[in-house]
Design brief:
Blueprint (H helix, E strand, L loop, with lengths): L8 H15 L3 H5 L1 E8 L7 E5 L5 H7 L3 E9 L6
Antiparallel strand pairs: 1-2, 1-3
């Protein structure tokens, strides 16, 4: 039985791309996102922005007791960055 043109990796990639477009996701948006580190500190016990992943080490912050309740969040980068 021969393969149709709508089978295999090319068809799977096309379907994945259609799904991305349907939900509004694209590579440009993903590239424009940064990963933020949020958590609580002794000075500010409410959860707040601590820094960008790569600029701060969430594991080291937690291990030292300098921060707790840490979460990592992807968010759009832009002129309103803290």
């Amino acid at each position: 039985m021969g393969k149709g043109y709508a089978e295999g990796p090319a068809a799977e990639e096309a379907e994945r791309r259609r799904e991305e477009l349907a939900v509004g996701s694209n590579r440009e948006t993903a590239a424009a996102a940064r990963t933020a580190v949020y958590g609580s500190t002794p000075d500010r016990p409410e959860k707040h922005f601590i820094g960008w992943l790569g600029e701060v080490d969430p594991d080291a912050l937690f291990a030292s007791g300098a921060a707790w309740g840490i979460s990592i969040v992807r968010r759009p980068a832009g002129p309103s960055d803290p």
